Amino acid sequence: MKAYEEAAVRCAQKRLRLFGKEKAVAHINEWADSWAKRGVTVDKAAVMQATFSGVTRITKEQWNAIPDDYKGRWKKGNWNVSEEWIGKRTVLEGCLPGGHGTALVTEGIHFEIVK
To answer: Do residues 29 and 47 make contact, with C-beta atoms less than 8 angstroms apart?
Structure first.
């Protein structure tokens, strides 16, 4: 991966943590378009893969198996969170497959529930 692609991954990962998946994907698309206008070919698929490789995927059954005391949803009044996070699921990292620790992680940023 070229240096400018690695820089795009770092920026997209920051947007992923702060604003969610949609903003990160939009950033990558805008970045690739700006390089294309300059006649530079970039590996957009590799940038996407590197950006989202840290997102844990769990099934609905795995989610349902987590005790309610360890999961919840962002609500207004929780830690001054962005409006975009309101309603997103949260869980302690240690409850996810391969996870450890007590960090609070957010759906769409740190984990996804798949079918």
So the answer is: no
